Amino acid sequence: MFQAKGCEVMLENLTDYPYSSARRVVMGQQGAVATSQPQAAIAGMEMLLAGGNAVDAAVAMAIALTVVEPTSNGIGSDAFALVWDAQLHGLNASGKSPQTLSPEHFAGMWQIPPLGWLTVTVPGAVSAWRKLWERWGKLPFEQLFAPAIRYAEEGFPVSPETARAWKRAADIYLPLTAPEFQPFKEVFFPSGRAPAVGEIWCSEVHAKTLKAIAQTGGESFYRGELAQAIASFAANTGGILSKSDLAAHQADWVQPISTNYRGVTVWEIPPNTQGIATLIALNILEGYDLSQYPRESASSYHRQIEAMKLAFADIHRYVADSNFMEIPVEYLLDKAYAAQRRSLIGKNAIALAEPGLPKGGTVYLAAADSELMVSFIQSNYSGFGSGILIPDTGIALQNRASGFTLEAGHPNQVAAAKRPFHTIIPGFLTQENQPLGPFGVMGAPMQPQGHLQVVANLVDYGMNPQAALDAPRWRFIAGNTVLLEQAVSRNIALALVECGHNVQISAEPGMFGKGQIILRRGGVLVAASEPRADGLALAW
């Protein structure tokens, strides 16, 4: 093991890094917020300025994101959170599959369909908002909904990245003709097309539903009129999600999992999420003195990619709902096991089976004040989700059942009342039992890869938070195929090819994730937002 450069290097001498990165670093003392949409970040700051805390800000941002970035999340999403309040708490608000779901529903299929009722599990985002607020919120619950309701009623200009995602989604959702997809198209494609950049979009049905959730503390969604509307639409259009499925849902407090990487402890939510992949890969990578190689070098890229490939091979085989896992988390995180896996890495790329994880749509946010720090993530899964929207509600349902496998005997095999494998993972950093802060990178299988690269940038290369997000990225796809951003030098790409990697260059920023970071140094909060998204970091 090699000595870490330490968290001090992450935050000092900001001007040592490229001007563009240092210029965008945001610093404050009282509070900070960062997420992928400026309107949502402003919603969080509104709560802080009104006397709320970081949890109030985080929940307000999460609610606002369901309106201003519907291409990635919605009222019918799932969610996870990590919260620091002198210790770290984990919240798993992901929903289970319907109680009557069985493998027989997928007879003749080779994978879970990405659209329609069979891909819907119980949505958990609303329960996450309520659970977090109950434990830490200072402001009235209804107040947290005010910005989102305002955006839904008055409209907002659609941002560039969201408009791009909306336009891509049109090719998927507009051709759908079954009755269950029509309400979705009426709300999100009312003119038969996606809104353009800067076009004002609003949704009265979103506002109406958010008001009902606010006024009932979320009860309407799981046990009241909204729950009845969801169950009735399912019954009328071939779905099996029932009112009893919704009523049985609960968000669970869980013990976060971690590993120590060169003196910095990296925290993730335990399975059913893929956060453990980041920790496995970091354990493997820890055996190399990564800092001896330049950040922009094939030697550094190769070792990170290979560690990630080995981690994906493990999680694809073993990770599922924690109640169904056959291999304990402790075994997968064992340092001796990591050394065994590290011995498989050589000069040439390892050929591995595909991890089998599809592309996804997710939003991440971070918030902090003088006492609390929040890492929060919510997602539909793939783009807009299942394509099912409950009439007159704005509730677009996620397609999280796509995370299951149909492989018989696999711990993640589809079954009744079971949480699927989840791609969304909030992250958190501590050092010597003190918080550094929340971080996250969106993008389905890119998420643990993004976490790995951000941690290496911070710890091994001493980058400040904004520089750590700005730096060029790679993305392992399957087998020996790896995508590189255009900013990666040609020399690195050629050297990786010589190592046996099948290198492809991608100009699509969405392929490499979208993230945010807030780190604390003494009494100063340093916030940064992903340059690949439309996001914003604010601090005061």
What does this protein structure show overall?
With 540 residues, this protein is α+β, with helices and mostly antiparallel strands. The protein folds into two domains: 205 residues, Orthogonal Bundle (Serum Albumin, Chain A, Domain 1); 241 residues, no CATH class. It is built from 19 helices and 21 strands. The strands form five sheets. The protein has a seven-stranded antiparallel sheet with strand order 1-20-19-15-14-9-8. It has a seven-stranded antiparallel sheet with strand order 7-4-3-11-10-2-21, with helices on one face. A three-stranded mixed sheet has the order 16-17-18. It is globular, with a radius of gyration of 22 Å. The relative contact order is 0.20. The N terminus is likely disordered.
Topology:
Layout: H1 7-11, H2 19-24, E1 26-28, E2 31-35, H3 38-49, H4 54-68, E3 78-84, E4 88-92, H5 125-136, H6 146-154, E5 156-157, H7 160-173, H8 182-188, E6 200-201, H9 204-216, H10 219-223, H11 225-236, H12 243-247, E7 252-254, E8 257-261, E9 264-268, H13 275-285, H14 298-318, H15 329-332, H16 335-342, E10 361-369, E11 373-381, E12 389-390, E13 395-396, E14 427-431, E15 434-441, H17 446-459, H18 465-470, E16 474-478, E17 481-485, H19 490-498, E18 502-506, E19 515-521, E20 524-529, E21 536-539
Parallel strand pairs: 17-18
Antiparallel strand pairs: 1-20, 2-10, 2-21, 3-4, 3-11, 4-7, 5-6, 8-9, 9-14, 10-11, 12-13, 14-15, 15-19, 16-17, 19-20
Helix pairs in contact: 3-4, 3-6, 4-5, 4-6, 6-9, 13-14, 13-16, 13-17
